[in-house]
């Protein structure tokens, strides 16, 4: 990270949208270079994480031998409901503070220590229609991927995705356990789920990971990764949780 602090193109985002931006706060804290390219993606909802990954991918393609840091966070302070209407209290119960970061590189020297290779990203936005329909998936996905990280928005959402994609309970375990233990941490939930699979020692070289994020607007975004090496299980898991 010491080298990345000097060379990284910072991609920051979140529902929390202060001024100076969260990106500026990070750059100031880590004393990054003056020519660092920073982006603060606010108001993108729970799908912002994969939007940032897609943006980082484009930036790395245009800038060889570079780093990109993607920081995903949720801050519910400004959206907390202080009233007494019970129907409005759901968001207070399900949303939680959370955050995760990923370091991306296109340097050949990092090939040996990288965990994953980003293979593909897909962004779908239904904002042109007054009524946004659910983004459908392809049945048979369970035969194409070993791991699924579906945004842990709520139980009903996860169950509908499982039904639509004909996934097994084991496929949905990382998402359901992340929701059970941490609540809805917005766009950072995808990284909690991947960490869960890693902590359990389930990620092996050659495995494919499908991350699926949903956000307001309505947006549905996907990223596909291939594991470049086995990820050993942790003896003391920080993200593991018994399946609810």
From TrEMBL:
Alphabetized GO MF terms: fatty acid elongase activity
Keywords: Acyltransferase, Transferase
GO annotation terms (biological process): fatty acid biosynthetic process
Residue ranges constituting the FAE domain according to the UniProt record: 13-136
Gene Ontology cellular-component annotations: membrane
Gene3D superfamilies: 3.40.47.10
Keyword Transferase: yes
UniProt domain Beta-ketoacyl-[acyl-carrier-protein] synthase III C-terminal: residue ranges: 147-226
Tree of life domain: Eukaryota
InterPro entries: 3-ktacl-CoA_syn, ACP_syn_III_C, FAE1_typ3_polyketide_synth, Thiolase-like
EC numbers: 2.3.1.199
Family statement drawn from the similarity comment of this UniProt entry: Belongs to the thiolase-like superfamily. Chalcone/stilbene synthases family.
PANTHER family: 3-KETOACYL-COA SYNTHASE
Protein name as catalogued: very-long-chain 3-oxoacyl-CoA synthase
Organism (species): Miscanthus lutarioriparius
